[in-house]
Structure formats: structure tokens, C-alpha cells
Amino acid sequence: MVICQGEPACATFPNVLRGVTFIVCIFTTAFVGPTVLILPFLPILFLRHGWWRKYIDQLVGTWFIFVTRLLELCFNVKVNVTGELIEHEEPGLIIMNHRTGLDWLFFWNALFNVDWRLLTSLKIVLKGAIKKAPGAGWAMQLNSLLFLNRRMEEDKEPIEDMVEYWARNGSHYQVLMYPEGTIMCKDTLEKSRKWEEKLNLERFDYVLHPRVKGFVLMVQKMRQLGSIKFVYDVTLAYSDVIVESELEIFKGNTPKDIRYEVEKFRIEDLPESDEGLEEWLNGRWKVKEQCLKSFYSQAQEDRHLAQVFEPSHEIQKMRNICTAVWFTVLAASVCMTLCYSQTVLPYYFVSSAIFVFVECFYGGFDRLQVKLLCQDSKSKKK
Fold first, then answer.
1. Which secondary-structure segment (H or E) carries 274?
2. First to last CA, the chain
3. Beta strands 257-266 and 78-83, pairing class
4. How far apart are alpha carbons 97 and 285 in whole angstroms?
5. Residues 114, 5: Cα–Cα separation, whole Å
6. CA pseudo-torsion sign 282, 180, 154, 374
7. Which residues cross the membrane (predicted)?
């Protein structure tokens, strides 16, 4: 079995400097975005929800584009996307194997290569604890991402509420979820072995057996609301280095060669029953296991998953503009903090207090947005 290929980068000063620079830029802009660029427009949330949603989606999309450029500048990350096109103008569900805690971050580069507009319509299913992280977690709440606790009795209502929220917005979102529910590491692989033995399941070495109930609930709810046209099965493979811990990024240790293969399925071609969907998902993971087994059995220079999507020159120019804008925001926020700290620091404190207040009384801005948009329909049902 080959799970990890390549040697991690040495923790040299240049590598550490790149890692620290990336982290500082990401977390500073992630804090400035919600507090400075979004919170002052909070009244729009209560007056014109559609305007609010479009503003947040577009603003966060430009930040995603900024991050893709940072990954290339700091770490020389390159992605190779093959297979079928993910359509920006059609609602869809993206399922992908979950190898590291940074899979979703690198996937932004893949989406940029396919169609940069996907970064303005992407929604991600994440672990619930992430939403409480100052700055980054607040931005994710405002972007109406879906946070789960990996317990169906607790997750059923948030899934149904957020899917309805996405549908009622009238936007065509592409939702990324990881059916495995957690990353693949030594501990989770050992648990998977016990699960396989207990239920007499096929042995997997490159993926974990998927948790089917969340996937089935998501598909059926999206079907009910008419907010899904395609299901995209994305197979992810790291050709050089697999980062076992997110902390490795501080050392500048990231994969440089990341591969994605996309398979597209029309929703009407998927089974209609819950049992049929479970069987379909398990079947896709068996295919994914064989695909990755074949990939890692090849010499590194010969590896491929299956035309390659490359962003045009005009799109690259647009990304450079987004990067320049966010670097300007970063520089301006630092300068304002240093020069006008007596005014700026209290503002940051009040802004942070607002996010804490909403978290305590409403469960976060993600839940508040759902309540504001969907409460009318729920009251009518009652």
C-alpha cells in the first residue's frame, strides 16, 4: 500500500518564511474582510437579503481567487484538472475523497482553472468547530457554509435548513461535501479496518468507506427543492507530498503537484430511493479506490488520472487584479491599525463582540441568515 509519496520539504528559513507569510496574509485578510468590508453593510441583511447574498458571494469569491494566487506565489502549488466540466450556471453537488485537512483549500485552485466564477458560487460542508474561529470562521458563517457535527440526529435540521436557504436565494450553487466525513490518516484508517471487519466490507487502502446518510439526505432535499442538476464525483490525488498535519504549512511544506479528475452525473440518472443512493455512493467509492490504487502504483513522472483545464491569459489578469486589491486591503488595514490604533482597535473589539453575540444567541451568522430568509415559509407550513 502506498499512501504518501515524496519527501516533506525541509524546515529551512526560506520555507518557514513562505509559510508564515501565507498564514499572516490569509488570517489578516480573513479578519479584515468580515469586520471592515462586510459588517458595516449589515443593515442590508435585514432590508434586502438578495443584495446582501450577492455582495457576500462576490466578495468572498474575490478572496478565494486571492488565496489561489497566494498558494502559487508562496508554495508554487500546481493543480491538474481532467475529466468533465463543472458548470457554474447549474446547481450541483460535488463529492470528493478527503485526504488531508487542507483539501478544500487546494480545491479552490482547481475550480479557478475550470471556471473562476465557481469560486463565487461554491458552498462547502465543514466541521462545526471551524465556524468559531475568529476571522476565518466568521467569514465562513457569512458565506453561508454548512457546518456539521457528524451526528445525524444533530445535523439533519442544519442540512435541511441550509439547503432550503441556498435554494430560496435563487442562486445556482455548487456544494462541496466529503462523504467520508473525516480525513484519511493512521487513526481513521485503523478505525476503518475495524469497521470493514465488523461488517465484512471490501478493504480500502486509499479511501475511507463513505458515510451514506448525510449524502442521501443532501441529495433528496436538493431534489425536493429542485436545486440540483448534476452530481460531480471528484477524485483527488497528491502526486508528491501528502501533508499529514495542517501545521506543516507553517514550515512551507505543501504539495506541489495535485491532481483532480471530475466525473459528472445527471441527477435524473441517480437512483430515486434512499437505498439506491447508498448503493450508488458505495459503488463510486469502490471505483475511486481502484483509480487511486492505479495512480499510486505508477512512477511519479508517469502518473495521471485521465483534456487539462487551464485559465486563459485574460482570467489570469483578472486574478492579478483581485490579488492586488486584497494586498491593498491588507496593507491599508495594517497602516490604519498602526497609525490610528486608538480608533481602530476599539472598532475591531466591537466588531468581534457582535460576532460573539450572534454566535451565542443565534448560533452564528449562518443560522441567522437562514432564519431571516426562511422563517416566513416555515411559519406558513405550521
1. helix 274-296
2. 55
3. parallel
4. 8
5. 26
6. negative
7. 20-47, 321-341, 347-365
Radius of gyration of the chain (CA): 21
| In the block, residue with C-alpha cell 486574478 | 319
Is residue 246 a contact partner of residue 222, using CB atoms and an 8 Å limit?
Answer: no
pLDDT digits (tens, 9 = 90+) for 328-368: 999 998 898 888 888 899 999 999 999 999 999 999 999 99
Phi, then psi, of 176 in degrees rounded to 5: -100, 125
Got the DSSP string for 168-179? Answer: HTT---EEEE-T
Other Cβ atoms less than 10 A from the Cβ of 50: the count is: 13
Q: Which three cell numbers stand for residue 226?
A: 429542485
- Torsion of Cα atoms, 237 then 242 then 248 then 251, to 10°: -100
- Distance (Å, rounded) from C-alpha 277 to C-alpha 270? 7
Give CA–CA dist 263/219, Å, rounded.
17
